[in-house]
């Protein structure tokens, strides 16, 4: 937390939105030594009945960034059962040495964790700061906000919009987006069930609609209803406890009495995806960039991927080590991931419909889930492990996700995740036989951006791994020209200068 009077006029980066995605983005930048200000509209963190599923790829990213404890590299693959379109039986598997396939952590808990670490680094986090507009020119951006009844302005080299589905940053700057109109209506709330022992647990489909109850004996249970027959007549009309009770009873085809309802809201299958995550000096992450039907617990996980995918690149740009064009790669990659999620939640919605068509699609799903290979492939989609797919380091090609593995270095035996944590915001260039020649080629130009490590058990292979775990290049270095080109493309800098520098050392 900070006070408005303590703020300076200019910051390198302003992050608008201090939820879990915005605070993670800011934290990653601050840990890289970047001057960041966080503006959050809410006065404090609130516990809401929203995202609570952290999928495998998010766990893998957060362990590599040092936010979760590193797993045991010798542990086997971890699997769990999940749901698709309300049907349980989907298998989600994390590779060996990568930790659990799913973690139950609420978004409020993540926000508190990241915010506390931000404050510990001395990064200003201003709560109850309502951003009203963002203006930009070639030199930077101006953020206007209100705080305690006063209008204030700060300037920044870059602005990151992490301010949710109704993002003022997105609307103020004018990001073009592709939208799909809603066809379904859903209700959400927390309440104490009068008779939790007999309440319909989990995902239940009747001839009238769906109920989803996460039953808590003696405490607040999360209650959701899905109506696939059409959208809300007025999605902005406040939801009442009476409407939620009537809908639950109607869809369950029997009374499911509850009391003390709170955190009531409506949502739908409306989707929106910005055409580009970057507009000049402004970038988007999380729900500010993409909105979709919340099936499969994928929204928060998309945002975590956005935060990690953006922050290491934006740190390079903010330090003047890379051209802003590297940010366009962030936009392309994350747009593809979000488009994939929007497609799979639309498929789930169709399989949840009531009637003959829905029955047919659900039968197809039952057949699919019985096929182990197809089941696990679909589980990889839901857990974000298909973009990119994991691969062992020795076999990894460009675009793969380098799975954790044991590495024999000059300082001892370790593993890939621990090397990522120690490298901070730098990439890793892991080489076997040719490590010294690679070091002479790389360190003069990229030493601050890439850590070169000899891994004796890699043999002749050299692998360049980004801070987010994706392989940027792999192979035998040869004359180094291909490696140098990939370093320049990924981490900025001049490939020509690198070749000249290398030639001068021979």
From TrEMBL:
InterPro entries recorded: FAD-bd (IPR002938), FAD/NAD-bd_sf (IPR036188), RIFMO-like (IPR050641)
Single annotated GO MF: FAD binding
Keyword Isomerase: no
One matching Pfam family: FAD_binding_3
FAD-binding domain span: 12-344
Gene3D superfamilies tied to this protein: 3.30.70.2450, 3.40.30.120, FAD/NAD(P)-binding domain (3.50.50.60)
Cofactor(s) annotated in UniProt: FAD
Highest rank taxon of the organism: Bacteria
Keyword field: FAD, Flavoprotein, Monooxygenase, Oxidoreductase
PANTHER family per UniProt: BINDING MONOOXYGENASE, PUTATIVE (JCVI)-RELATED, TRK SYSTEM POTASSIUM UPTAKE PROTEIN
Protein name: Putative monooxygenase
